[in-house]
Task: inverse folding
């Protein structure tokens, strides 16, 4: 009862999520009949297969994206996580390999692709703006940090490196427009910094080499700490 979504393997089979029955149904595309069902926990909605939407599916795994997880995980309050279940489809029979709690809203569609096909950046080229994929004109290198005032507009050219921001103090007047130009000088993998200023809604992630531009109005008189939100002692 309640078939919802279907994905495919590389052996001529389809896998359909069945909401009311809480199962994944495997069926033959050539014979158009169900050959196996496996219970999932619980009320499966969407489903995904390894490269199951391509012309060359991987055929190794299916993930059941379940809306309920009752009795699957330790209870920590009235809000329970959703539950993704990894299912091995290579053997004679399907079998559940792992449950994974998902602490977000109702699980919707996703894709699974081979890791060796993903060629991500490991670090940004120094000073790259992630939105333009070019070196930002405001990118700053060590030794060239500065604060420039033009009327009531203050531009701060800042660098971040473990464990320091330069400049590490910024003085402005109440009502000034402040433009922060932040460059993470790190060129080693996984050396991410964060930058935040209390009470001014400033909170950004600075991956290695990344440059970010942030503008805010200094509309609250006082002293406010700026700090790294990705703990590295800065």
Result:
């Amino acid at each position: 009862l309640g078939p919802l979504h279907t994905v495919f393997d590389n052996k001529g089979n389809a896998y359909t999520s069945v909401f009311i029955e809480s199962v994944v149904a495997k069926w033959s595309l050539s014979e158009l009949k169900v050959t196996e069902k496996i219970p999932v926990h619980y009320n499966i909605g969407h489903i995904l297969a390894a490269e199951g939407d391509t012309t060359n599916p991987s055929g190794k795994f299916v993930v059941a994206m379940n809306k309920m997880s009752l009795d699957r995980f330790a209870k920590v309050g009235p809000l329970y996580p959703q539950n993704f279940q990894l299912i091995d489809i290579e053997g004679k029979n399907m079998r559940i390999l792992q449950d994974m709690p998902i602490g977000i809203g109702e699980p919707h569609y996703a894709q699974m692709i081979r890791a060796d096909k993903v060629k991500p950046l490991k670090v940004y080229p120094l000073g790259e703006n992630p939105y333009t994929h070019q070196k930002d004109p405001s990118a700053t290198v060590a030794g060239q940090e500065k604060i420039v005032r033009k009327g009531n507009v203050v531009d701060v050219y800042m660098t971040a490196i473990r464990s320091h921001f330069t400049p590490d103090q910024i003085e402005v007047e109440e009502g000034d427009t402040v433009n922060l130009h932040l460059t993470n000088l790190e060129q080693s993998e996984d050396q991410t910094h964060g930058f935040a200023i209390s009470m001014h809604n400033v909170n950004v992630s600075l991956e290695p080499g990344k440059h970010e531009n942030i503008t805010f109005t200094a509309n609250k008189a006082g002293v406010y700490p700026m700090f790294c939100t990705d703990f590295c002692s800065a």
